[in-house]
Amino acid sequence: MGDDDALLHLVTSANVACGFHAGDPSTMRAVCTAAVPLGVRIGAQVGYRDLAGFGRRDIEYDPRELADDVLYQIGALDAFARAAGDRVRYVKPHGALYNRIVRDAVQAEAVVRAVVAYAAAFEVSLPVLGLPGSVFLELAEAAGLPTVAEAFVDRAYTARGTLVPRSVPGAVLSSVEEVAARAVEMAVSGTVVAVEGTRVVVGAESLCVHGDSPSAVAMAEAVRGALREAGVEVGAFA
After folding, report:
1. Angle, nearest 10°, between helix axes 63-83 and 25-35?
2. Mean pLDDT, to the nearest integer, of 146-163?
3. DSSP for residue 38
4. pLDDT per residue over 165-199, tens digit each?
5. In angstroms, rounded to a whole number, what is the distance separating the alpha carbons of residues 46 and 70?
6. Helix (H) or strand (E) holding 48
7. 74 contacts 114 by C-beta, under 8 angstroms
8. What are phi and psi of 78, to 5 degrees?
């Protein structure tokens, strides 16, 4: 859906769809094969079983089935990552699942259980990305998983520190200049201005640019350049 090759030359970590909300075996292999020589870390972007809705529709799940689905997705991508010479370095939930486990402890625990099981089976460190203050990160930390708080440079925030739903006008930002300025603000001050006009603490250790945005490559380029000019060193967290 986007220019993956161009983005891989700009990012330090790539959230790769594992076939449930997007992607397929050939795409997964191609991205891993391109990412490894560039030193880009591969992350499993796990989501609901929802190809038709791109994983952005809320779904009720049996917790055991959700844990199995997440474990399955990590394993599928890890096979391609290892074939390319590396491995899955972290896990990041996608779309509706990501937003659901900000508050839903049942689904959050299911995702955590799957990541813990995979990390234990292969004796690897497997950090998880999530929204600061989310139930997901709290449960992950309690389970002994490394946690990484992230912020979205191309999404609008509410005063509560959550993302504005995509159905609301203005939820997705399209101005390259605005996105670059927000990235610097998030990295330097750890805050961002919410749609209500209040300043929200994000405390991000990772900044996300959505690869399916029409101007994703230009945004990533502008963000990286703006961070460099602001004296912020950019590097992979995993």
Report:
1. 50
2. 96
3. G
4. 999 999 999 999 999 999 999 999 999 999 999 99
5. 6
6. none
7. yes
8. -60, -35
